[in-house]
Each structure stands twice: as structure tokens, then as C-alpha cells.
Amino acid sequence: MSLYKQDKRQVCESCFDYIFIEMVHYFNDIDNSTDKEKELKSSKLEQMGYLTGQSLAERLTGDRSRFTDNLDVIKFVCKDFWSTIFKKQVDNLKTNHKGTYVLTDNNFKWFSKMSSNSGQEDFKKEVLPYLSFPCGIIRGVLSNLGINCTVLADVNPPNQCIFQIKTVKS
User: Fold this and answer.
1) Taking burial as the number of CB atoms within 10 A of a residue's CB, which of 23, 42, 127, 131 is the most buried?
2) Residue 152 backbone dihedrals phi, psi, to 5 degrees
3) Is the dihedral of CA 73, 79, 85, 90 positive or negative?
4) With 60 as the cut, is the pLDDT of residue 61 above it?
5) Structure pTM?
6) Which residues are within 8 A (CB) of 100 and not within 5 positions of it... i.e. 6 or more apart?
7) For domain 3-167, which architecture applies?
């Protein structure tokens, strides 16, 4: 990769980091919101991620053959999709073979620039609003590829992020 392309990519990633942080701040004005408003704002952020995920899936799978089953789709998300978005594969994938998948990223890129002087529980509380968008992205990708699901996320300080995907029968 040429130096120019590398610099351009770093600028794009820096711009996204800033926009992502500002989106979360905009939708999570916690001091001035009731619990119902907080839930609605989180839902809007997740919906933005969902639409983003659907678009990305369209772009990344345009020239691929159809997937044969749900596990193939999940493996695509863990390898190809994750590599495109986060420049690495998911660190761990577990399944119960009954429609539940757990994806673990031990160094979630979008948390790498975050820090906290408070304890682990406070850090967890601070980063939870930042999980709505990536959960939406994952749900959007999977929806576009034919898997109806719910996606929940949890974080273990300092940067481990765990996404739990539960498929829903149509």
C-alpha cells in the first residue's frame, strides 16, 4: 500500500472515530433524559448501525456465492466482515448449535482510545452506550444475509467486547 493511501485511510478512520463519538454523545445526553428517552435514543443509534450493516453486507457479498447455512454466515461475519471493519478477525466464536453464537473481540478497536480513571464497573457503565451502534451493524449484516436475530453486547475492561447473537425463527 502506498504511503498516500495509508495516510488517507488513517484520516478516514480518525474522522469515523470522531463521528462515532459525537453520535453516541448526541444520542445519549444522559443528564437531561428520562429512562424512556434514553431507551429511545439507544434504539435510534442501534437502528443507524442496522442500516449501516445492511449496506456493508450488500457491498461485501455482491460477488460471493450464497451461504449454505447460518454457521457459514456467522463465520463470514467473524472473518471477512470483521477484518474489513476492524482490521482483524474475531478472537473467539462459540455456539451452542441451537441458534446462539458468542463472538469475542479481545481488543475491540472502537474502545482502544478510551480510558477511564474510575473502576471497572464505572468503565463498563461509560462504554455501554457505545455498544448500540456495533450491535446494530451486526444485526443489519445478518439480516441482509437472511438471519433474523437479536444482538446483545457486554464489555470486560479494558477492551474486551462480547457480542451474543440469538437467532429468531421466522
Assistant:
1) 131
2) -120, 155
3) positive
4) yes
5) 0.84
6) 164, 165, 166, 167
7) 2-Layer Sandwich (3.30)
Asked if residues 61 and 79 have their Cβ atoms less than 8 Å apart, the reply is: no
pLDDT, greater one: 152 or 126: 152
List of residues 6+ apart from 144 with CB closer than 8 A: 53, 54, 57, 58, 61
pLDDT more than 90, % of the chain: 43
- The pLDDT of 59-73, averaged and rounded, is 88
Average pLDDT over residues 118-133: 78
| Amino acid, single-letter form, for residue 58 | E
Calpha distance 42→103 (Å, rounded)? 21
